[in-house]
Amino acid sequence: MTPIQPADAAERRSATPIICYDVENLPFVDMGRYAAARLALEKVDEVLVPPRDARTFSVDAGQFFRISSVEGSQVGDLNLFNRHDLNERFFSGKTRQLHATHLTRGDRMWSNLPHLRPLATITHDTLEWYGFDDDGGGVHDVIGTRCDPYTQQTLNGTDYHHCCHSNLTRALADATGQPMAEIEHHVHDVLNVFMCTGFTRDTQQYFMKASPVRPGDFIEFVAEIDVLGNLSACPGGDCSASHSDDDAACYPLLVEVFQCTDDSMSGWAPSAPNEYDRSHGR
């Protein structure tokens, strides 16, 4: 049945879009300081994330961390936590509202309510050049969730244990020593690192396409508080064809942690929790 349009349908559709949040009022990001610090970085740790698996990594406030493609085109699903309180974690929805559907240099990963503060800031992105392509696709999205075995079971009736949700659950259980059944609820919506995604123009469905990432490409962050990262090397590989199976060619991802060795970060302070008094009108 064809929907009946009101007489003023065209007028209603022509309303002017209004940006929801005035980002000019966001806390200042001193990208000049971070750019200077990047010139004096010394590697202090690294973690190699195997294909179709996940690993955790720890970064102190003020340190930098870099996620790199090292062997082949590969996307990753990133969770980020307050290292001292897993209940404070990355809030992809609010990050999307404050910045955009896809993140790049200067954007921040914000934590969930009631904390709502930057967990990390993107300081460099070798794929910044990509922008948005003719299909509307962009890189490093905060619109998708993560491939998971529950959706796989719903759509295909099969159990697949190397979806990113399962990978992240196993890695977090290993890092905390807690049973998977008790830790799984902490796994949350991700930053889809290197993944190229968008919405189709006709049906507005979420799509993926071959990632432009190549060995040597990386995205880099500064930790705004002490963070625990959890990164899955997605079973979709570069996400050019299949998803949530063992068909795609998959490669490891490298996480490196760096410390600034000069005084560029002198006087810098970690981000503070949100100042709202939590009275909620009472």
Provide a concise account of the structure shown.
This protein is an alpha+beta fold. The protein is built from 6 helices and 13 strands.
CA-based shape: globular
Query: If you average the pLDDT, what whole number results?
Result: 97
The number of helices is: 6
Structural class: alpha+beta
| Whole-number tally of structural domains | 1
The amount of helix comes to 10-25%
Largest sheet: 7 strands, antiparallel
**Proportion in β-strands:** 25-35%
N to C succession of SSEs: HHEEEEEHEEEHHHEEEEE
First and last CA, distance:
48 Å
Ranges where pLDDT stays below 50 over 5 or more residues in a row are none
How many whole angstroms does the radius of gyration measure?
20 Å
Secondary structure tally: strands: 13
Write the layout of secondary structure elements.
Elements: H1 9-13, H2 31-37, E1 41-49, E2 54-59, E3 64-69, E4 76-82, E5 85-89, H3 92-98, E6 108-110, E7 118-125, E8 138-141, H4 149-156, H5 164-176, H6 180-183, E9 191-199, E10 206-209, E11 218-223, E12 227-233, E13 253-260
Antiparallel strand pairs: 1-13, 2-12, 3-11, 3-13, 4-5, 4-9, 4-12, 6-7, 7-11, 8-9, 9-10
Q: Which terms summarize this structure?
A:
282 residues
Characterization of the model:
By secondary structure, the chain is of the alpha+beta class. The protein has one domain. Helix content is 16%, strand content 29%. The protein contains six helices and 13 strands. Strands 2, 4, 5, 8, 9, 10 and 12 form a seven-stranded antiparallel sheet that branches. The chain starts with 8 loop residues before the first helix and ends in a 22-residue tail after the last strand. The mean pLDDT is 97.
